[in-house]
Amino acid sequence: MKETVLIVGLGLIGGSLAMNVSEKEDVFVIGMDKDEETMNMALKQGVIHQASKSFSKAVKEADILILATPISITIEFLNQLEDVDLSKPLLVTDVSSVKNKVLEAANKLTHPRLSFVGGHPMAGSHKQGYTAAKPHLFENAIYVLTPSIHATEAEAERLKQLFSKTGARFLTFTTSEHDEMTAVISHFPHLIASSLVHQAREWQKTHPYIEHLAAGGFKDITRIASSNPKLWQDIFFQNRTLLISMLDDWIDEMQTVRNFLQEQESEQTYQYLVEAKQYRDGLPVREKGAIPSFYDIYVDIHDQPGAIHDVIGLLADENISIKNIQILEIREGITGVLRISFATSEDQVGSKKLLEKHQYEVMLQQ
Ligand SMILES: NC(=O)c1ccc[n+]([C@@H]2O[C@H](COP(=O)([O-])OP(=O)(O)OC[C@H]3O[C@@H](n4cnc5c(N)ncnc54)[C@H](O)[C@@H]3O)[C@@H](O)[C@H]2O)c1
Ligand SMILES: O=C(O)C(=O)C[C@]1(C(=O)O)C=C[C@@H](O)C=C1
């Protein structure tokens, strides 16, 4: 018998999950999104098998519910669940970037047929919406699970099975462990990236050429400031208390660095940079698991004759040798994705630079 999975929110994350879940033969996917065009696209491309406009109706048909909406909307849906007249058990999960209020709502659910295991795939993009969704988005990424007080080990296992095609690696944490760690490595850096953009914008008033000088460094460190402001407003407010405390620490730290410069402490400044480099260089790259140790890039291509040939031709002209090439997704009339593997990280990085110079959109798999 097929398992029915309802996915609410078919944007970047929900759409990418749907692309993986609907690949499973024993799963029937119902999709729901407030944006009708999104639902139609997903239905037409076979990423969902059925579209629904009624949460209360669709939820009664589902065995598993995935809430992939903005966090505050996810909490609203969780609150609605208590009143649904369920005739069979429903395992609920979400994808929210902050967990405390979501788990608070989930832990309050008393309906005997409901269980909740929170989820957060640690992969994403500064892009939003269904058109940015990709089936390989979660490959080799960490997928954090945060079970509610009533959830069993078996329910967490069921979700791992459901998401087995994503290629993600699962880790389980408590809500506060999750929120503290993501504040450090995701939410706070986002806040700083936005502040750097504001600083540049201010300076541009007196130095109009600033925007033309902004090269690799500025663009690398501020890429995430181009993300969906509504989503990040939600994230900042969901994790507000921790962010305030981190801002206090950061201001102290910046005061220390300011003193190094003020007092011309060149050795201490050097050590500060050395220690940051050592920690940064030691960060694990996305683990490859059972996949052989190749260095992959993902290249977006358009569905037109010769598209793959053009990409390979550019690499061949530069004598870059390819170890493997795979078409991950190509449907009529839409953009497809090529996964190209290289033997060395030099070839991987070199190819990315080369293709980007030719206006391709390239994602590097670390
Ligand atoms: N963007 C990332 O990098 C990232 C990574 C991991 C987790 N997340 C989490 O994923 C969730 C979704 O983020 P996203 O980046 O996919 O956003 P998105 O904007 O790409 O997608 C959200 C989708 O939800 C739909 N939606 C909004 N309100 C709805 C409603 N009331 N009913 C039905 N559909 C509704 C929107 O139309 C949209 O298609 C958020 O909770 C976020 O914290 C985001
Ligand atoms: O790659 C990006 O653009 C992201 O911002 C992804 C990112 C992150 O901070 O790493 C953003 C939010 C999520 O909750 C998880 C992942």
UniProtKB/TrEMBL annotation:
Domain Prephenate/arogenate dehydrogenase: residue ranges: 3-291
UniProtKB keywords: Amino-acid biosynthesis, Aromatic amino acid biosynthesis, NAD, Oxidoreductase, Tyrosine biosynthesis
Catalytic reactions of this protein: prephenate + NAD(+) = 3-(4-hydroxyphenyl)pyruvate + CO2 + NADH
Record keyword Amino-acid biosynthesis present: yes
The species this protein was found in: Halobacillus mangrovi
Ranges of residues in domain ACT: 296-366
GO MF annotations, alphabetized: NAD+ binding; prephenate dehydrogenase (NAD+) activity; prephenate dehydrogenase (NADP+) activity
Keyword NAD annotated: yes
Known EC number: 1.3.1.12
Homology family: Belongs to the prephenate/arogenate dehydrogenase family.
InterPro entries: 6-PGluconate_DH-like_C_sf (IPR008927), ACT-like_dom_sf (IPR045865), ACT_dom (IPR002912), NAD(P)-bd_dom_sf (IPR036291), PDH_C (IPR046825), PDH_N (IPR046826), Preph/Arog_dehydrog (IPR050812), Prephen_DH (IPR003099)
Name of the protein: Prephenate dehydrogenase
NCBIfam families, A to Z: PRK06545.1-5
Pathway connected to this protein: Amino-acid biosynthesis; L-tyrosine biosynthesis; (4-hydroxyphenyl)pyruvate from prephenate (NAD(+) route): step 1/1
GO BP terms: tyrosine biosynthetic process
